[in-house]
Design goal:
It is built from 1 helix and no strands. It has one helix at residues 5-136. The chain is mainly α.
């Protein structure tokens, strides 16, 4: 038995439809899907590279920040030491000036006390002679 001619036509159209669908629908669709997959892979690779670069940049930023902070602390420590040395020098100069002024004042007080003693001694002699003269009624010799 021979197949009917319509079966051959159906087979022909099925094959023709398969070729047409393959060329017009499936191949372009597969090509678009492959391109999309490549684009996704490329985007993923780019994202990973960007993330790695961001991590490296962040680490570099942290390192530089730590270096800057250490430099700042070193400068602050140096300034503190300089200020403490300057403070000690000023304190020493002030102490020396105060001691010099105290010594000068003591010397001046000593001179004034000696002068006062001499005056008092002279006045005491004069007063003693005046008192003796009054008591004795004559000049004491």
């Amino acid at each position: 038995m021979l197949p009917d001619l319509s079966v051959l036509w159906v087979i022909f159209f099925v094959l023709l439809l398969t070729v047409v669908l393959d060329r017009l629908l499936f191949r372009p669709l597969l090509r678009v899907m492959e391109e999309r997959q490549r684009a996704i892979s490329s985007a993923r690779d780019l994202a990973e590279r960007s993330a790695n670069e961001a991590r490296i940049a962040s680490a570099e930023f942290e390192r530089r920040t730590a270096e800057a902070r250490a430099e700042l602390y070193r400068q602050m420590d140096e300034m503190r030491r300089t200020a403490m040395a300057e403070r000690a020098a000023i304190l020493e100069r002030t102490r020396a000036e105060a001691e010099a002024e105290i010594a000068a004042a003591s010397a001046q007080l000593q001179v004034q006390a000696e002068e006062a003693r001499r005056r008092l001694s002279a006045e005491a002699d004069t007063l003693g002679a005046a008192v003796a003269e009054r008591i004795l009624g004559r000049k004491a010799s």
